[in-house]
Amino acid sequence: GHNDEEPTTGHTLGQDFTDLVIKSMGPKTSPRLRTVMSSFIQHIHDFAREVNLTSEEWMLGVQMINAAGKMSDDKRNEGQLMCDVIGLESLVDAITYQEAVKSNKPLTASAILGPFWRSDTPTRPNGSTISFDTPEDGVVAFMSGQVTSAETGAPLAGAVVDVWQASTNGLYEQQDPAQQEHNLRGKFVTDAEGRYSFYCLRPTPYPVPGDGPAGQLLDLMDRHHWRPAHIHLIIEAEGHKAVTTQIFDSDSKYLEDDSVFAVKDGLTVDFVPRKNDPQAAFQLTYDISLALD
Ligand code: MBD
Ligand code: FE
Question: What percent of the chain has pLDDT over 70?
Fold first, then answer.
């Protein structure tokens, strides 16, 4: 309870002050916002008390947030990357998909979106390529698979498979003026048997952008910047829950110490040598199973 006698400064140090801040929300606050902000205020106050946060340390944090905002636009999301390096996007992904995981059905596992998805990716024909200026050290792979309903196993025609990946220099197309627009991205619509296919690069490991506060934070924590070789996917089909995921080359470095903690069971895949195709040295079969909405 409140103690009206207590002086304001001492008061500010303890739970009474935290309660005062939480109780300052008005009756028109939505129930969900009240729940989220009450918990957020409680935890951030407890955090500051637990580490005896100094004014200087607090201001450094504020400056990091401001710097992240300043360098962000629709091609760069530094705030998201800061969350990624402390595992927050992966935790939220796990929370979001926890019901799906419990369902016992052979569902495609999810993974974090990351900062490089684009909303305006073009649709391309099945069997075509997403690699328009394949670099000298790029290895082309043929990726294909079938999208089915986890409920019935039936193939899903007209499902959309949206894919994107970085080039061998570690850069996504929007980070790299040397790549043509929408290079290494494409949306593919499944055929009557639920099948999709395209040529891409066999992915390679790369460091997350190190020129902002997220990279600075990694350095301060004495951590490396690397991610294992991966391809991003979002799969959507009528009447089914969309899934955002990433697949990881089982041969890649950094599977055990991904700088953004996205690797989990069911997401590693095997690229195998491809015979009789002058266009691709490797192939990957990746089937997708979606839950009913
Ligand atoms: C990436 O390419 C990425 O996929 C994630 C999740 C975070 C940073 C860079
Ligand atoms: Fe990525």
Answer: 97
Question: Looking at the domain assignment, is residue 2 inside a domain?
Answer: no
The 10s digit of each residue's pLDDT in 31-49 is: 999 999 999 999 999 999 9
ipTM: 0.98
Structure tokens at 293: 């909405």
Strand order in the sheet with 185-189: 185-189, 160-164, 230-236, 243-249, 268-269
Chain segment 65-78, per-residue pLDDT in tens: 999 999 998 888 99
C-beta separation of 18 from 42 below 8 A = yes
Q: What's the domain range around 37?
A: 8-53
Other CB atoms within 10 A of residue 105 CB: 15
Burial of 28 (0-12, 13-18, 19+ CB in 10 A): exposed
- What's the CATH number where 216 sits? 2.60.130.10
In this predicted structure, what is the pLDDT of residue 105? 82
Split into its structural domains, the chain has a count of 2
Give yes or no for residue 262 CB within 6 A of ligand 1: yes
- 114 Cβ below 6 A of ligand 1: yes
Ligand 1 and 209: CB distance under 6 A: no
Interacting residues of 186 by C-beta distance below 8 A, sequence separation 6+: 121, 122, 123, 124, 128, 130, 162, 163, 198
